[in-house]
Amino acid sequence: MKNHIVSAFRLTLVMLVVTGIYLGVVYGGSKILPDRGNGEIVYNKGQKLYANIGQEFKSEKYFHGRPSSVNYNAAGSGGSNKGPSNEEYLETVQKRIDTLKMKNPEMGNAKVPVELVTASGSGLDPDISEEGALYQAKRIAKVRNLSEEQIRNLINNQTEKPFLGILGPSKVNVLKLNIALDQLK
């Protein structure tokens, strides 16, 4: 019995050291990043905003991001935990599709980008695909009395390409896109 206790104590000490080193490396690594691990802060009209946390935009003159299952509350991120065969989930997604098509009637029966009708795992995804932004371009152009070409150029300028050209998808940060949209003349 004594051998088991001593072995368990040794293993506990080893694991504390290993996890302590791991946490130190992660924390130290975050401090050498450009944002020092504090998130990407954006100032707009004197307001401090975080570009790496999804924001809610309700106005038709703005691009809308992914739906949030936590109402964009960064204090309690999380998904709905409902699978793709769950009836309630399917009804929610269908309602979102219907609402999106109603708000973007100029798109007709065009394929709806999946991220515009499904929440992310955290409920706080700040990005949408380039296709998701382009899906909303006609509505934005119409509401703001701008040309669709201006909106498409803005989307193109705000699109972040994959890391090293191959790792990850192209994406558009909705907050930054809407700030740039407000700065258009």
From TrEMBL:
Main location: membrane
Keyword terms, alphabetized: ATP-binding, Cell membrane, Ion transport, Membrane, Nucleotide-binding, Potassium, Potassium transport, Transmembrane, Transmembrane helix, Transport
Classification via InterPro entries: KdpC (IPR003820)
Membrane topology: Single-pass membrane protein
Cross-referenced Pfam families: KdpC (PF02669)
TM ranges: 6-27
Record's keyword annotation contains Disulfide bond: no
Annotated function: Part of the high-affinity ATP-driven potassium transport (or Kdp) system, which catalyzes the hydrolysis of ATP coupled with the electrogenic transport of potassium into the cytoplasm. This subunit acts as a catalytic chaperone that increases the ATP-binding affinity of the ATP-hydrolyzing subunit KdpB by the formation of a transient KdpB/KdpC/ATP ternary complex.
Protein name: Potassium-transporting ATPase KdpC subunit
Organism: Chryseobacterium arthrosphaerae
